[in-house]
Design brief:
The protein is of the alpha+beta class and about 200 residues long. The protein has a domain at about 75-195. It has helices spanning about 5-25, 100-105, 160-165; strands at about 75-85, 90-100, 115-120, 130-140, 155, 175-180, 185-195. It is globular. About 30% of the residues are buried. Residues about 1-50 have low confidence and may be disordered.
């Protein structure tokens, strides 16, 4: 057995890991230290500094790309709990995937689904609890509006979201989220928009 190729592979792996660590530490001061805690259940997800893609801008009316997949940096799911706790809006989300148009047809075995969309849920996934930033953009479309009925995009307050959600009997309102860390969908929520599902 020739140990030389194995040693070279291990050495190359160490160099790659070392290079990644060196690059990631460049341009980072002690003030930029990042703390990320991601848990399921009763603890909210917390994160350090916001990434470049994070913004308080409202989630676009078209949250999917031209093929019908979620746009980068957005998370889809169903709010299963919403509450104001110490003045902070906290939501519990059951994650799902939303597909529209071509993407919906692809995941539906090549058949165009009714209403041209598919929602896929993984029953093995736990629910995630998030804190919503006090400055977050909040948009209701139907169920989360103070006066549900018509389907129209409106900015809403945290109080209106909680009141509308808790007055609805289905306990599962489809929403899109944008977090402070858009690459991992973690950290406080900076934008939330209801997804109307007929």
């Amino acid at each position: 057995m020739n140990a030389r190729p194995i040693l070279l592979s291990v050495a190359a792996g160490v160099l790659v890991v070392g290079a990644i660590a060196a690059v990631s530490s460049l341009n980072r001061s002690d003030d930029d230290a990042v703390e990320v805690v991601s848990t399921r259940g009763s603890n909210a997800v917390q994160a350090g500094p916001a990434d470049v893609g994070a913004s308080y801008e409202p989630i676009p009316e078209e949250p999917t790309d031209e093929l019908g997949y979620a746009k980068t940096g957005l998370e889809f799911g169903f709010i299963t709990k919403a509450e104001l706790d110490g003045g902070k809006l906290r939501i519990t989300l059951r994650q799902a995937e939303f597909y529209l148009g071509k993407a919906a047809k692809t995941v539906n075995g090549g058949i165009t689904p009714p209403n041209d969309y598919v929602v896929a849920e993984d029953a093995t996934m736990g629910e995630f609890r998030y804190v919503v930033d006090p400055q977050a953009s909040l948009v209701g479309v139907n169920t989360l509006l103070p006066e549900p009925g018509a389907v129209e995009r409106q900015e809403i307050t945290a109080e209106e979201l909680v009141k509308s959600f808790n007055s609805d009997s289905n306990r599962g309102v489809a929403v899109w989220l944008r977090h402070t860390d858009t690459s991992t969908n973690s950290g406080p929520v900076l934008a939330l928009a209801e997804q109307y599902i007929p």
